[in-house]
Amino acid sequence: MLASHSFAQELDLIIRGGSLIDGSGSAATKTDIGIKGDRIVFVGNGAGRNAKREIDATGLVVTPGFIDPHTHTASDLSDPKRSRNDAYLMQGVTTVATGNDGSSPPAIGSTLAKWGQQGIGTNAALFIGQGTVRQEVMGMSDAKPTAEQLDRMKALVDAAMKEGAIGLSTGLYYAPGSFSSTEEVIELARIAAKHGGIYDTHMRDESSYSIGLLGSVQETIRIGEEAHLPVMISHIKALGADVWGQSKDVIAVIDNARKAGVKVTASQYPYTASGTSVTAALVPRWAEAGGEGALLKNLNDSRLRPRLISEMEQNLTRRGGPDSLLMTASRDKTIVGKTLVTIARERNESPVDAAIEIVKSGGSDVASFNMMESDIEAFMRQSWVMTCSDGSEGHPRKYGTYPRKLRQYVYEKHVIPLEFAIRSSTSLPAETLGLKDRGLLKPGYFADVLVFDPKTFNERATYQQPRVLSTGVRYLTVNGQLAIDDGYLTTALAGKALKH
Ligand SMILES: [Zn+2]
């Protein structure tokens, strides 16, 4: 038939002969995939199909582009010099969510519009941050909101959801989110629910600081139940010796809630160190009430000092002691790359005194080694756990999460099968975030397609050198355009700002 050879039928791109994993969890098959415009138009035998560009994927793995539900990329995407999002493209990530941990750009609509106008390398979606909203209305106050303040916060969440936010994020561990009661959060989550959004949380406690890991999981489930929306626990973990081994109990509590109809999922990064700051890790929240100025005043107040030191010592023990905290980024370059124990020895002071001095002179980001491998693996095996990077400066996870998960947990330790790992990085986050027509290799879906070499796909970033791009992505399309071609980044900025 003439029609089958007409120009209209010609594909823009065909990827032939790869081991194709569609993202649903189904087994790999050796087959072809065709793209036209920004969509996948067929998956199957492509013999006889013509395309402007042919890619031979023999020996390579073809999957949906990865979808990262928890990043800190808002400032990267807004800066024209960094908006290509190289660290993510080179891991095979084609979509990022950001605005997590309760902290987002305050103006959702104009941020999305700016990304759309300037161009971004990956697709991107935004949460509205509860901490951001609270700070706008109440500053860094630890007070309970008045009825009028609560109404203003609700109005801000409502506006953000109308402007395209995918849900409400909280960082109840951090100030000012930590000053919010569960009931206050439920009020705001109900607004997100009204618009079909989800609730994403860095929980109040991943350890034994306040209400405990299990108490925080229960708080999250309650928010899901009472606000009637799906809840996603960010970077699920058992942080510190006090809660090591509790993955078992956490999994049981979540499985029960899911059986009872609450939509609970979680994200996870595959590292034993978390990334945070000296302040967030060690300083008690009461010392932060009132903001930066109040914090410095409290740190210098000799009457508060005994209480401060004793609580900081407990927090340091909880995290694994002074050799578990590695300084990764600070205004004071002389401390970067050193652990707190080394700094304390050099200065001939106690680790907590050294930490207080670090906070006073501008603070420092840390890699905090506080997780057990067995807990990481237990969480990773759950069908409701998706991959996230939680990428932040100074931690290799921003550059290495996705290839690391496959290299270490699929290919080397065989903790999970490849198809399961791909699902946890594609269709599961797409469904959870409510991203339409993404996360699967299926006709009609957006052509976000990853082709990687299973022999070389790996992270290169380390704690010592966290900003090194990963290897092994051979081709990557974002909305049908090649963002990586034969291993090299192209100049394409084919990402879309995704509105809920
Ligand atoms: Zn977080």
What this model shows, in words?
- Helix 5 (147-162) packs parallel to helix 6 and helix 7 packs parallel to helix 8 (247-259).
- Strands 1, 2, 3, 4, 5, 18, 19, 20 and 21 form a nine-stranded mixed β-sheet that branches. The protein has a six-stranded parallel β-sheet with strand order 9-10-11-12-13-17, with helices on both faces.
- A hairpin with a 2-residue loop joins strand 20 (481-485) and strand 21.
- The chain is globular.
- The two termini are 42 Å apart.
- The protein has 17 helices and 21 strands.
- Mean pLDDT is 96; it is low at 1-7.
- It is an alpha/beta fold.
- The protein has helices spanning 74-78, 86-89, 108-118, 130-138, 147-162, 182-194, 212-227, 247-259, 278-282, 292-300, 305-319, 340-347, 351-360, 373-380, 397-412, 418-424, 427-433; strands at 11-20, 29-36, 39-44, 51-56, 61-64, 66-71, 93-98, 123-126, 128-129, 167-171, 198-202, 231-233, 264-268, 273-277, 325-330, 364-369, 385-387, 449-452, 473-478, 481-485, 488-489.
- The structure holds zinc ion.
- Zinc ion (ZN) is lined by residues 101, 202, 234-235, 390.
